[in-house]
Design brief:
The structure holds two protein chains of two kinds. By secondary structure, chain A is α+β, with helices and mostly antiparallel strands. Chain A is 18% helix and 25% strand. Chain A contains three helices and twelve strands; from the N terminus they run αααββββββββββββ. The chains are: A alpha+beta, B mainly beta.
């Protein structure tokens, strides 16, 4: 099919009255020219050398007309981008779907109630041994005899098979309280890796709600350190209440990126844990 | 004429590829950690003794009375009647953050975790906040008087805004007023709560200087004029 098979005349309608009162090319004529141009360009690789030469001449002629009318490639690109971004329904409305984070990203590493603490039920608790720790199940239940329990330590296991980067901390808590009471509060402090500096910004206790798994966003930490065996992470928790007789079921986790996995290999961490976003200048704990 | 890359066609193709041909248009998102030193929380502690406000402890909270703590931010707020008030409000308690000597912070938000009872034993008492100030400076809340704590609740999809994102540097601390509104002459359910500043760590003595989030960078902190703005 030749370019003139489109039924357009040779001067591309230049002799039509396709101009407005200021002599500029009308939008309709411009659109017609651009349509023809794109059809000719599409034909180029499909026709023989003689026809190609003719098409190229026509294209040059169209480009000259477009240039004379003040219409440039930049204007066209801008107009198309604008149309695509909001006017013609292609863009402007952005569809989002919640997605998995990617291999080895945002993994949760549970803390275990390793120390025996009075009035704290763990997976190891029996009637004969009410006060024992657990290194196998992270869930513990605070059932205080008064309105709170003593503070106690939770600890992650040694992860010998991977090198992790810690990027967050998360708490899941379920309350048992009288319906007319506000319920107990879990407080946390001193999140440390291998006896290092506190990763929490609060030197004393803070409400564990700021690290709640139900929050829409993650709370920040002072640093995103590496967790590598034999190092482990520890955190101190305590349940407090204003009345007696209420309880709380709790589990805590570290949020980590798996950097190197002995079995599944090295992964690319999320953008928040890559070199470009881990910029730290100065600081007594920063290796230069 | 040699067939060369035409900017007009290239632009069209790029846009088509990006928007129309199935590459873009649908974006996949995953909730991510904010990055080092971003969106950290600094808790407020009860530092003044006001009837009806007591930090939680292993001892049950007795009706009336007051208490302070510089280590436990979990606070029990009583209804006005239980706190000994003859009116519908308790006294105004001042909460305060500790001095953060090891870092320079930029305050970017404020949030509160408030526990109301599931089924209150009477009209619901309401916690209210006012006068969020840094080092005795201007109020960062847009409300000059009290506002319900609900607008600053944690767990919301978005953070409530502040009038400014000031620097918090030791020895300055942040201060906040709290008050409970409740029925007169009737003791109703208590409220357990905690309040925190949302901050960006700009410089940490131990972990160094960080790049703050986009909302706390110079380009997003443009302020022109204003009597509090240094020119």
């Amino acid at each position: 099919m030749a370019y003139d098979d489109f039924g357009l005349d040779d001067d591309f309608g230049a002799d039509d009255d396709g101009t407005d009162e200021l002599g500029a090319m009308s939008e309709r004529k411009l659109a017609r020219l651009l349509r023809l141009r794109s059809k000719l360009v599409a034909q180029l690789p499909l026709v023989g050398p003689a026809r190609q030469k003719a098409i190229k001449q026509k294209l040059m002629q169209i480009d000259r007309i477009l240039a004379k009318s003040g219409y440039t490639a930049q204007k066209q690109a801008a107009a198309t981008a604008l149309a695509a971004s909001g006017i013609e329904g292609v863009g402007g409305l952005s569809f989002q779907a919640m997605s998995p984070p990617g291999i080895g990203r945002l993994v949760r590493l549970p803390f275990y109630p390793v120390n025996a603490t009075a009035n704290v039920t763990t997976a190891g608790t029996t009637a004969a041994s009410p006060t024992v720790g657990s290194t196998t199940n992270p869930v513990f239940i605070e059932i205080p005899a008064t309105s709170g329990n003593a503070a106690h330590i939770l600890q992650t296991p040694q992860i010998s098979w991977a090198t992790l980067r810690i990027v967050g901390f998360e708490v899941a808590q379920k309350l048992n309280c009288a319906i007319q009471n506000p319920g107990p509060i879990l407080i946390v402090q001193d999140l440390k890796i291998g006896g290092g500096a506190n990763l929490f910004t609060h030197e004393d206790f803070a409400d564990a709600d700021i690290y709640s798994a139900d929050q829409p966003e993650f709370c920040g930490l002072r640093d995103y350190p590496i967790l590598k065996s034999p190092n482990t992470a520890v955190v101190t928790v305590q349940m407090l209440d204003d009345v007696v007789g209420e309880s709380m079921t709790v589990s805590c986790s570290l949020l980590c990126e798996v950097l190197v996995d002995d079995n599944y290999g090295a992964h690319i961490p999320g953008p928040y844990a890559r070199g470009g976003s881990l910029v730290r200048q100065g600081g007594s704990f920063v290796n230069r | 004429m040699a067939r060369s890359a035409n900017p007009l066609l290239d632009a069209n193709n790029r846009i088509n590829r990006a928007m129309v041909d199935g590459v873009g248009g649908l974006q996949f998102t995953a909730q991510a950690p904010p990055g080092i030193g971003r969106l950290i929380r600094i808790p407020f502690y009860v530092t003044t003794s006001v009837a009806g406000f007591k930090p939680l402890s292993t001892t049950p909270v007795a009706a009336g009375g007051s208490g302070t703590s510089t280590t436990v931010p979990a606070i029990c707020a009583e209804s006005p009647n239980e706190a000994g008030s003859a009116t519908a409000v308790t006294g105004t308690v001042q909460l305060q953050t500790p001095q953060i000597s090891w870092a320079t912070l930029r305050i970017v938000g404020f949030e509160a975790a408030v526990r109301y009872p599931v089924l209150p034993n009477g009209p619901v008492a309401q916690l209210c906040f006012s006068q969020l100030q840094i080092g005795g400076g201007a109020n960062l809340f847009v409300h000059e008087d009290f506002a319900p704590a609900d607008i600053y609740l944690s767990g919301q999809d978005s953070f409530a805004g502040l009038r400014d994102y000031p620097i918090l540097k030791s020895p300055n601390v942040a201060q906040l007023n709290a008050q409970v509104v409740g029925p007169v002459g009737v003791t109703v359910s208590r409220i357990n709560f905690s309040a925190s500043l949302v901050c960006e760590i700009l410089v940490d003595d131990n972990y160094g200087a960080h790049i703050p989030g986009a909302y706390a960078r110079a380009g997003a902190l443009v302020r022109q004029g204003g009597s509090f703005v240094n020119r």
